[in-house]
Amino acid sequence: MALVNGFHHLTMSTDGAQEDFDFYTKTLGLHSVKRTVLFDGTIPVYHLYYGSPNGDASTIITTFPFRKPGVYGRRGTNQSRAIMQAIPKGAAAFWEDRLNAHGIAASRVARFGADRVVFAHPCGIVHELVESDGDSREPIVNAAMGIGREHGIKGIYGASVAVMDRTAMDEFLTIALPLEKEADTHEGLVFRVPDTNGVVQRVEVLVDRDSAQGTWTLSGGTIHHLALNTGDEESQMKLRAHIEGLGFTDISEQKDRNYFKSCYVRSPGGALFELAWTTPEGWAKDEAPGEIGKTLVFPPWFKDREDELRAGLEEATFQ
């Protein structure tokens, strides 16, 4: 039995909360799945979740909007570089036109044999919409935003990671996680993420020995982590033990994220990976099914800090 079953979510540190919400819900047509706050540290920061209407695993993009003067990340090497989402075959032209019409510069390119539309989040993080015919997931429809089934984003395709040492990253992804190496070319390396439904999801590794080291702190303009779905706690703990037993000891204990449980491991290529599984209640733990993502909610352990956190959060209407 595979200990990884597709992606769970991808997480970024962005900039303004309202521009982040508008980008994902209005431009890309994703749905608000959860509005809460960063569970770590003491600084009030939103944690926003976007994806399919029901918040299905492998569709979730999450962000920490972090508009703080002088606190901004540096994009570089030894760091996750791009967020990739799958779109139906033939939908690239629609998205190129739509994004440019919204004032977001977008262009079509091909890499590793896949056609894709490349553009950037307002905070600068590169995004790619990749045409994928190996994807049985239903497209995310948002009629109010003019996005129908023939063009809607299907969910996570994967992410690219920039590294200086391709060999060390190759060993980590194939031995520690483990993923399946599909390609090793002048463009870089491609690894398939196991998925029992046969959905094509990948990690692409690009060699970059020229850029400066990217930052790993929680600061705007950078990708924070890539979360793989272990399905349940048993698989998570087995995979954690396997990774630590190989000597990758930069791995966390399990953390309670209210809707899922997580362990984090820093790869030798710099990218932070998460091992995650959704708890039985999932997103409906504090909002009714069908009504998720519509209110600002706090975990039980922040009950005595709600007023303080609300007062410190950036103003946003989320409309």
TrEMBL record:
Signal peptide per UniProt: none
Domain called VOC: residue spans: 6-132, 155-278
Q: SUPFAM superfamilies this protein is in?
A: Glyoxalase/Bleomycin resistance protein/Dihydroxybiphenyl dioxygenase
Its protein name is: Glyoxalase
Per the record, the domain of life is Bacteria
Q: Which Gene3D superfamilies does the annotation name?
A: 2,3-Dihydroxybiphenyl 1,2-Dioxygenase, domain 1
List the source organism.
Aureimonas ureilytica
